[in-house]
Design brief:
The structure is a homodimer.
Chain A lengths: L2 H8 L3 H9 L6 E2 L5 E2 L2 H15 L4 H9 L5 H32 L5 H17 L2 H39 L6 H18 L3 H13 L1 H6 L4 H11 L1
Antiparallel strand pairs in A: 1-2
Helix pairs in contact in A: 6-9, 7-8
Chain A binds a DNA duplex through helix 2.
Chain lengths: 230, 230
Amino acid sequence: MKVGELAKRTGISIRTLHHYDELGLVSPHRTVSGHRLYGRDEVVRLQQVLSLRQLGFPLEEIRELLARRDFDAQQLVRNHVERLRRQIAAQQELCARLEAVAAHYHSASAEEFIQAIEVMTMFDKYYTKEQLDTLAQRREMFGEEKLREFQEEWPRLIASVREEMQRGTDPKDPKVQALAKRWMELIEAFTGGDAGIRESLQNLYQGEPQFAAQQGMDPRLSEYVQKALD
Amino acid sequence: MKVGELAKRTGISIRTLHHYDELGLVSPHRTVSGHRLYGRDEVVRLQQVLSLRQLGFPLEEIRELLARRDFDAQQLVRNHVERLRRQIAAQQELCARLEAVAAHYHSASAEEFIQAIEVMTMFDKYYTKEQLDTLAQRREMFGEEKLREFQEEWPRLIASVREEMQRGTDPKDPKVQALAKRWMELIEAFTGGDAGIRESLQNLYQGEPQFAAQQGMDPRLSEYVQKALD
DNA sequence: CTTGCTCCTCACGTAACGTGAGGTTCTAAG
DNA sequence: CTTAGAACCTCACGTTACGTGAGGAGCAAG
């Protein structure tokens, strides 16, 4: 059988057969003019290659397997399954996240959408898994409505405080005190009083100044609020 | 900020930053001597790129997204989730199979192992999903023990029939008739009387002669058995 | 002898960078 | 002012499993 025929019968492309020949995976005989000739043995070999390929093994590994057939099949499969499991887990998490974003930012603009993803990325970086779980629970407790309110209130609150700061108002001034109180309340609502979460939050805003800036925060403002809280 | 510093602060490799520059994803300014200078805007941009990358989008798509920000975020995410789900499903099936092979061929040699995989591949090709499900159920019904018995009996039975054929025994001979009866029983046990499955089985052995040969079958033997069964 | 089909061997392209090679610029110390 | 070493630059090849021509021969039929 020449390549074309084998290709038609197996559905494998000619190029792929050439490729396998180059890699030494399936090595057909040749006519004097150089045309490849596949016999029974080569077809069997090809089937084996295809079978292993279907299971997701890289070609290089397949070649080694078929070369020295004394490998530990069990161990091999276990390793492979392990690899797959990890990939699957990662992808499932990704999926869950994407859907969470899609669901939550139901009618969000592109800008808001990217923002949301950025926030998620940052959270991943600064919170432990347990903390993220805790936060997810708290969010569920509050419900859509409340969350949206909080999200809309924060920028307003930050803007108000910034205004007072720029105006040079004394942090002890009752107006600032009222804002600071609300500030505390919102943070408490978010952290649920968890000291670890509060710390991670602080690390996040200190460690990612450009992220903080996007939220309207900066170190000076932080300091100002801190004074008012004391 | 020069590349080295940005690289340290973000944990992204210098090469990657160069790469993103080449692709026009993050385009820093340059000093007169050509060194890259990243400012606030570029860092923000980088964060966005990284966020989208983390969600598994290809860089090319990310560039388009960030270029024309009027895209439909919902649609985009849905498409992406769809892609992911398909990948996950495929990988899970793979995993399940690998484990099935590993569990079933618990102490198999490398040869048997490859054989098993080949059989699976062939089954995939010739049976529909429903038929495969049905077969899986039947296998569970029988249990490990019975299956192993069947698997050991088949080669013996095939060998016996082949012997009679080569000896030229009349298909109507009682000895051949007894073998043919057992043959029928085994096939019935396998197909569970499902006509579709029996047909697929026949297609498999007719369509994959080299597979059939590995199992010890060939067209002449088939014909002989057929005569005996009539 | 030529047409048309099949075959051959390069060899580049893909995604997202890693990893040098070889050369320039910056920075701090002598 | 010079010089060593760090940091920067631009190529450019390697990775995986092939796809996709380019350009040139072999092979059967008219």
